[in-house]
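Consider this today:
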Amino acid sequence: MNSDGKSAVFCISVISVALVALIYTVHMDSWNHKVFTFLPDTQMIVNGTAVMDIQWRWLPETLEMEVKVNDDNNETPHTYYGCDYLGLLFDSDHNGKLAKDFVEANTENDHGVFLYQDNQSYVLDHCFILLPDSSMPGYWMNNSVVYSRLYGEKNLNDTCCVFRENEGYTFKLTIPTEFINVRSPTLIHISFWDSEIIYLSPPYNYIYSQYDTIASDFWV
């Protein structure tokens, strides 16, 4: 092959690599969308169907997320009712599963991200999904992301929660990937906890409190 032919092959190779890089960049920067619905007999967060609408995208150093929940009641933060919050759990130790009890949380190291309605936000080590357990009081019967101990606490910047009448909560998160130690694709658990439900009928109504959370697993 002559020198011109070699130059042509080289140029085609460079263009191919650049095109792949461009496609990858566009894919990583694009927004993804997922909607989960929860029927009235599975939750008491709203009088009807609860909706969790999720958008996310991966940037070189952050995971950007916007999560909308149509909760029809904005709690007053840090009062008798507590504080509504969004929780996310990541497979930060890359063992192929998410921690699901106190023992796993302490022996494994999955990181949890928490954003509260008053705009407090945390990233904590050694978190887990609290699953239904008949040996525990009813208010533990949910799929909330919780933490076993305070390890490596970090705060998030550029993160906020907004409540609007007739719409509900919008949680906006900018999560540095170094905080959660994962990249796409990865399985996560997401939950929204409505703090009012466990206090609907004081003293605590354990029968109904199992409906205080909406949650799901999905890939990002």
